[in-house]
Amino acid sequence: MESFLGVEDYAKYPFLPESISYALRRNPNLSVDKIDSIEIMGFEPKVVLDVTRKRLITGIKSGVSPKLDDVHHEISLVSFIISMIAVRFIDDQVVYSRFAIAEARRSEGYLLEEIEKNPRGKDVAKVIFEKVSNVKLNQLDQGFLIPLSDFIKFSVKGETSWKLVNRWVYMGNVYVKHNELAHMFREISMKSIIERINKMPKPAVKGSLLELIKEIEEAKPRPRTIAYTGKMPPCIEFQMNQLKQGVNIPHSARFLLATYLINIGWNPEDIVELFRTAPDFNEKITKYQVMQISGAKGSGTKYMVPSCEKLLTLNLCKRDETCDNIKNPLQYGRFKKRT
Amino acid sequence: MEQLQTVKKFFRWYYFNNSEKIKAPESTESREFGYRDFNGNMVRHLSFKSEGEYRAFLVKTVPKSVYYSVAFYIDPTAPMESKGWIKADLVFDIDIKDVSEKIKENSFWICKKCHSFGRLPAPKVCPNCGSEVEEVEWVCDECLNEVKGAALDLLNILTEDFGLSKKEISIYFSGNNGYHFYVYNEEMRKMGQQERMEIVDYITMKGFDSSVYSKNIPENGFMINRKRVPVDPNVTVDIKRVFRAPDSLHDESGLAKKEVDSLESFDPLDKAVVLPEEPVEVLMYYMPSIRFKGETFGPYKQEKVKVPAYVAVYAVLKGLAEFTENRSG
Ligand code: SF4
Ligand SMILES: [Zn+2]
Prior knowledge:
The complex is a heterodimer of chains A (about 350) and B (about 325). Chain A has about 350 residues and is mainly alpha-helical. Chain A has helices spanning about 5-10, 15-25, 45-60, 75-90, 95-115, 120-135, 150-155, 180-200, 210-220, 235-245, 250-265, 270-275, 285-295, 310-315, and strands spanning about 140, 145, 170, 175. Chain A contains 14 helices and 4 strands. A 4-stranded antiparallel sheet of chain A has the order 1-2-4-3. In chain A, helix 3 crosses helix 4 (about 75-90), helix 3 (about 45-60) crosses helix 5 and helix 4 (about 75-90) packs across helix 9 (about 210-220). In chain B, strands 2-1-3-12 form a 4-stranded antiparallel sheet, with no helix packed on it. In chain B, strands 6-11-10-13 form a 4-stranded antiparallel sheet. A 3-stranded antiparallel sheet of chain B has the order 8-7-9. Chain B is globular, with a radius of gyration of 21 Å. With about 325 residues, chain B is of the alpha+beta class. Classes of the chains: A mainly alpha (about 350), B alpha+beta (about 325).
């Protein structure tokens, strides 16, 4: 299968193991201390660094890495590797996730284009997906069949439409639509990028890469810390911690957080701040959604906090003994005996 | 207590005469074993190196009930937290009371002291003498067929929806009123609790939303006949559970947990009857009629009868009779 993909594909999906080994094979002296002197395809080191800067800054700020279609594939590919080195140097899980999702989104875009393009595109998409996930797919007209256990592993947790009970399951395979496959691809890619960065030793960076790193640190999301008192129910605490660690929490969890916090009296701006560390944070959309949930926009009705029972079916309940017999997270702590 | 000692005598007979046929689980040495003795004590965290060692234990100890873990551990005898979980068989438990309406009609209560009885719902205390009463689930052909129907539905889901081959599935009559399924598929054995919950929800159709489901069907895809099977979610999700051992005797019936070769033709009240034919005299307080090995016994009411040992043990373990002579030893 190795020959099936070319350098153009490697540039589109630079985190595939074979993309990385291709880049290292082509640039055997690609190392941290030589970045200031690296020449690729006759281009000066500055060109490579500029591309890397664009990739990183745009990616971290906007949440999607730029496609770089106007850049030579070899350079695009190398800029990904230098980006990983820079991100590893920053040594911050929020930046890791932010970078990883920006890259995963970029490649997801290519994957969807691939699928829509032509019949061969679907084969390419299938091969790419299989390479990043180690899962074997079967192709149908409008989607793919994915093995049951892999579907369960990679499905989006906490979403009704992704629950196995609501899926078409036949002979050990689950039917997924193209956009759903792309969604799984994004999640799997993101995890594999983060894993790869975590495995890298911390590099000793100097020269112009160091300057670039300073710029990234400025671009990274900086949430105001919000002081709050009072103990939150386990389901809320859990999601807040996930957010802090830069985990991409599901929409149902965001909905839970927003409705809960609004109902206990947080103001919408503080809630938007809280979501700032989400790897796919988009200020405008988040603001709009939070305002809508608070009743300040749209229908004008405040949304209810989902019941504990509903949260249980969505796998969001983290009940422990402090939950007593409550029916809704809002009742948390209310029935507790004072000692 | 004496009554139970007599039961133990028959259990000993079974384990002594059948130990060669009792199978130990795959990777015996990686499983945790546990048992309950005839004094009611539960012992866990045991392990056996081989099938031979396990069989010798059964003959020597004569447990009232015996279990082993669905899980494979690095060190099965260690405390729970440090056993080192490797993987676990995926198991399902179908219980008659979750499946059959009919069983409720047949079931009854009986007073532990004066042996008055009546239909359900049971009174809090015996209306005759004020003592504690016990509910007894009583099976008939109809409700056994209902539970078998549910087992067939589950088998269909496993083979058609999940695509498992029949070789990867074992089905057992539970020894009392239900069926146990084991799935030996390596991908599934690796699943954790959350993943098993997804499987259970699929089977029990918890959280099913037909409008969401209909959007997830492929174009030109045929309709899949979705049937709900009420398996016990706790059993499937508990990846550290000890589960009743195949071929062992059930402590509430004296029947064996027997492997089912073909569900359609399986008759539990024939195939799972393994205690001796030898006639034994019991005082029946009350026993509705029941069919074992094609022969009907009862109904009996306050009478001494001579019945095969397997009927006697069944009635005694259900709290419906007592042995008239002390036969322990
Ligand atoms: S019981 Fe309710 S409050 Fe407690 S964790 Fe579960 S959902 Fe949250
Ligand atoms: Zn009584």
